[in-house]
Amino acid sequence: MKLNKAFAFSLTALAVAWAGTAMAADYPTRAISLVVPFAAGGPTDVVARTLGAEMSKELGQPVVIENRLGAGGTVAANSVASAKPDGYTLFIHHNGMATATALYNNLKYDPLKSFEYIGEVVDVPMTLLGSKAFPPNTLAELIEYAKANGDKINLANAGPGAVSQLCGSLLQQALGVRFTTVPYQGTAPAMAALLGDQVDILCDQTTQTIPHIEADKVKFYGVTTSNRIQKLPDAPTLDEQGLKGFEVKVWHGIYAPAGTPDDVVQKVNAALKAALKSPAFTERMSALGAEIVSEERQSPESLQNWVKSEIDKWTPILKAEGMNVN
Ligand code: MLT
Question: Which atom of ligand 1 is nearest to the CA of 157?
């Protein structure tokens, strides 16, 4: 009897293992969700949709974008962390993957344990913008105006965990002022508010801002990277205009829930690498000021090491500045 039970148990284990292998070998047999933690039409969404279209050609199944909004990207991260680890739920996220642990006390996921890492995608500079109705025309004027008007100035962002919030917080520290922050569920609605003169300033990724800068629909105070960027060679950095050491660069990675089989991770990684080489992706990203990461950074190991190093870098800074939200 005992023997029979043991035999039945090992048969079941064998069947489960076989089903897993067969699943990975066939993967994918249906549409895959790529979860975006911010609003449709915004900078993260633009990267996701362009990438998803190219990855779906490689994977032979549609990659469907799902925008899950809220709490600066942590609602989406939490839902992906608890999704079935079968390769049909993927996640794109930026620096927020590494900053959220310092910002939120009660996160229900662990960025270092709740995900499989697929690889990095693009680096994106940020730009500091004002609405057309906002009086300052240059960064020097903005600095003076901010010191005189402080919290009368409305700063839009996409909530704690968003890079727009990180950039805006670093700006307030650098200027020694407090603005009134107005959070949205992504910088697409924040940009709409800026274009409609409902808010005064916004720090946002070039993947959303370049068309508005080129169409002269916003006031443009500079780029947040330490060097000028190829796409906007005449635009000064904030650092060279006096905000010494000011630097925010956005990086994006692709993740799956922890426990996703390794062969599935490898297949998605191969599709990611192919998509990053495709002319449709490279041309669109370069038109929007984004830089495809080096091949070395496209690996799961590299993304995992990067997230860890970013957590180590930002946690003490954010905690020391009291940026915690709960
Ligand atoms: C952010 O501010 O973190 C993002 O740019 C938000 C977004 O993609 O909408």
Answer: 2
